[in-house]
Amino acid sequence: MAEIDSNELERLRREIDSVQGRYFHLLSLTVFVMLMLAAGILLRTYPKLLWNLQTTESERTYVPQLLVGLFFLVGLLSSYVLEQRRRLTKTQELLIQELIRRETAERLAVVDPLTELYNRRYIMQAIAREAKRADRQNQKLALLMIDINDFKHVNDTLGHVVGDRILREVAVLLKGNFRTTDIVSRYGGDEFLILMVDAEEKEAARAIERIRFHVEHWNRTDHIEGYRMSLSCGASIYRQGSDVIEAVASADRAMYDDKNNWRASAQAASAGAS
Predict the structure, then answer these.
(1) CA-closest candidate to residue 115, choices 222, 207, 189, 4
(2) What is the DSSP letter of 3?
(3) In the predicted model, is pLDDT for residue 63 greater than 50?
(4) Alpha helices for 112-189 (secondary structure H)
(5) I need a labelling partner for 165 at 20 to 30 A (CA). Which of 95, 143, 149, 223 fits?
(6) Average pLDDT, stretch 172-199?
(7) Is 60 exceeded by the pLDDT of residue 86?
C-alpha cells in the first residue's frame, strides 16, 4: 500500500476549516446586510423616530415602492445566501469524505487489523525516527521482543479462532503495561516488538517483570480452557551511534535465548512427571 502523505491530510483539514470560515463570513455578511436594510426601512418609513422631520405627500407615495424594492433585494440576497450555503455544505461533505478515506487508508497502512497494534512497517519507521531524536538528546531506547511460546501447537490443537483470540489477549496485556509514549507493535506472526522511549536496562527489566506478573494473573483467571499463556521476552538497548537494525536483532536473539530456556524447563518438567 502506498504511503499516505501526512501533509496531504493536513491540507484537507485546513480546507475543511476554510470552508467553515467562509460559511461564517457569509452568515456575518447576511446579518449585516439585513440589519442595514431594516435600519433603512425604519428610517425612511418613520423618520420622526430619530429626527424631527416631516415627510411630504410625494415622499409618502414612494414608500410602498421602496418597501417592495427592499423586500425584493432581501429575497435575492436570501436566495444567494442559500445557494452559497448549499455549495459550501456540499464542498465540506466532499472534503470530509476524502479526509475519512485517506485517514482510513493511513490507519490500514500502519495498524494490524487483528490486534489493533501498530504493524512492523510503522514501528521500524518509529525506531529510526526515535533513534535520531535520542542521538540529538543523548538518550537511550529500549527494545523488547516478545513471542508467544508454543503458539503453533495452539493453532494445531485449539484452532485458529482461539489462536486469534490469544493474539488479541496478548495485545491487550502488552498495551496495558507500557506508557503512552512507548510503541507496542505486532512484529509478525506471534511476535511483538515494543519501543520504550528514553529507557535503559532497568526500565526494560521492570517491563518484562510486569509482563510476566500479568501473564500469571491471566492464567489464574482461566480465560481459555486448556491453555496456559507463556511468553518469551528479550531486550536490547539502543545507544547513541548504534545500528538500529542490530539493536532489533539483539532483542530478537535475547528473546530466543529466553525461549530456549523455557523449552529446557518444559522438557525437564515433562521428564520429571514421567
Answers:
(1) 189
(2) P
(3) yes
(4) 120-137, 151-158, 160-175
(5) 143
(6) 94
(7) yes
Exposed (0-12), middle (13-18) or buried (19+): which is 175, by Cβ within 10 Å?
Answer: middle
> Of 158, 236, 247, 153, nearest to 201 (Cα)?
236
Nearest to 185 by CA among 138, 130, 230, 139: 130
Grid coordinates representing 161 are 479462532
Is 23 in contact with 93 (CB distance < 8 Å)? no
Band (pLDDT 50/70/90 cuts) for residue 225 is confident
Q: Could you give the residue numbers annotated as active site?
A: 190
State the Cα–Cα distance between residues 123 and 194, nearest whole angstrom.
8
pTM: 0.65
Beginning with the edge strand found earlier in the chain, give each strand of the sheet holding 141-148 in spatial order: 118-119, 183-188, 191-196, 141-148, 231-238
Of 274, 271, 262, which Cα lies nearest the Cα of 150? 262
Q: Is the pLDDT of residue 79 over 50?
A: yes
For β-strands 141-148 and 231-238, DSSP reports them as antiparallel
